[in-house]
Design goal:
2 copies of one chain form a homodimer. With 210 residues, the first copy, chain A, is of the alpha/beta class. Helices cover 54% and strands 11% of the residues of chain A. A 6-stranded mixed β-sheet of chain A has the order 1-6-5-4-2-3, sandwiched between helices. In chain A, β4, α9 and β5 form a beta-alpha-beta unit.
C-alpha cells in the first residue's frame, strides 16, 4: 500500500528504524537517537548505529549554537542542498559553502592545495559561532584540525563524515583526537557522505524546530 | 600518508574498490563496472555490487542519449548538485530539477499530490531525449511509470534509487516491471539516495568525457 502523506511516511519510517534497532539489541542514548535515526533514514544503512561517534556533550553544544543562529559550513554544494533551508531560516542560521567561490579556486591553485582547505580557512574568518558539516573532503577535516591547533578556530561542532578509501581514516582520527574539548560527531570508518553530513545537521535542527 | 592530488586519490580509491570486489569474488560485466564502482566510491558500501540492477542495453542507450545532449531530470536539488556540471556541459546536457518551482508546489497543493509527481509530469513535457535520476521520492518513480503507461513519456534511462523504508520497494518494482523496453538502472532494496543517483549519472558521463 502506498502512503501519500509525507509526514506519515516519515513517522512510519522512523517507527520501522526504531523497531529494527530494538530487534538488533542496539540501545542509543536518548539525546543522540534522533541523529542516528535520521542518518539511517537517509541511507537505509544500519551500520551507522555503530559508526557514529559523539564526543561528550556534543549534541548539547550544537543545539546551543543552533539556537544562537550559528553559521553552518559545508564542504560540498550537495551537503548545503541537503540541509533544510526552512529550519535553518527559522533558527536564523546561515548555510555557507565556499567551495565554488572563484577566490577559493584561485588561492588553492596558487598554493597547490585543495579548495576544501582554503574553504575551511575562509570559513574560520566568519564571525559568530560555527558548525562544520564535512561529508566529502578529508582535507577539510585536516584543515579544521590545523586551524584549531593554531588557535584560529574554535568550532561549536565538527561533523566529520567524509566517505571514501584514501586519507579518510587519518582525517577522521585527527578530529577524534581532539577529545571532548572540541565537540564532534564523526562517522567512523570509510562510510559517510554529503547526505550523511546533511542528515546530522537536519536532525539537530529538528530537535529545536519540530 | 596523505595523498594530495585529487586525481591520484580517485585512481587509488578505484584500485582499492576493484581489489576488494575481486577478493569478494564479485564479477561485474565490463560495461557496468564503472557505474557500480562509482556508487561504491560515493558510499563506501559494497552492498551496491549486488543491489544495482541494469536492464539489458541500459548503459548503451544512456550513453547514446548523453552523446545527443539529453536533459537529465532529478527529483532533488541535492542530486542536481551532485552531478558534475563540467561533464554535463561538455556533452551539451542540461540538468533539470523542478522540485522547488512555485508552479509545481501550487499544483501539488491543489491536487493533493506530491511535488515529485508534478515535477515528473512537468519533465515529461521537455523536448528531446530524457534521463531521469531519482534518488529520493518513490512517487517520482510511480509517476514516471504512469506517464509511460499512458504513452506520454519514453525515457532513454530511468535511474531508480530512492532510499527508505516506506513505498520504496513498490516504486522500484514499478520500474523493474517495465522490462528491457524502458532502459533502467535500479538500486534494489531499501538503499539508494541522491548521492547514489548522482554517482550513476556521473559514471555514465565519464565513460564519454574522460
Amino acid at each position: 500500500m502506498i502512503i501519500n502523506d509525507p509526514n506519515a511516511i516519515e513517522a512510519r519510517s522512523m517507527e520501522i528504524i526504531e523497531g529494527e534497532l530494538a530487534a538488533m539489541g542496539i540501545d542509543i542514548p536518548e539525546e543522540r537517537k534522533p541523529v542516528v535515526k535520521r542518518v539511517i533514514h537517509a541511507t537505509a544503512d544500519f551500520d551507522y548505529a555503530a559508526n557514529l561517534f559523539f564526543s561528550e556533550g556534543a549534541v548539547e553544544r550544537a543545539l546551543e549554537a543552533l539556537r544562537n543562529g550559528c553559521s553552518i559550513v559545508t564542504d560540498t554544494q550537495m551537503a548545503k542542498s541537503g540541509i533544510n533551508k526552512a529550519a535553518a531560516a527559522k533558527l536564523g542560521c546561515e548555510i555557507q559553502c565556499f567551495m565554488s567561490d572563484p577566490d577559493v579556486a584561485a588561492e588553492a591553485k596558487e598554493r597547490g592545495c585543495t579548495r576544501a582547505l582554503v574553504s575551511m580557512e575562509k570559513a574560520s574568518r566568519l564571525p559568530g559561532p560555527l558548525i562544520f558539516a564535512v561529508g566529502n573532503a578529508p582535507t577539510a577535516l585536516l584543515a579544521i584540525r590545523d586551524l584549531i591547533d593554531a588557535g584560529k578556530l574554535r568550532p561549536e561542532l565538527v561533523i566529520g563524515a567524509p566517505v571514501g578509501f584514501v586519507n579518510i581514516l587519518e582525517a577522521k582520527d585527527a578530529i577524534l583526537a581532539l577529545g571532548d574539548d572540541v565537540p564532534h560527531i564523526v562517522a567512523k570508518g570509510r562510510k559517510g557522505g554529503s547526505n550523511v553530513a546533511a542528515a546530522i545537521v537536519n536532525a539537530l535542527m529538528y530537535k529545536i524546530t519540530r
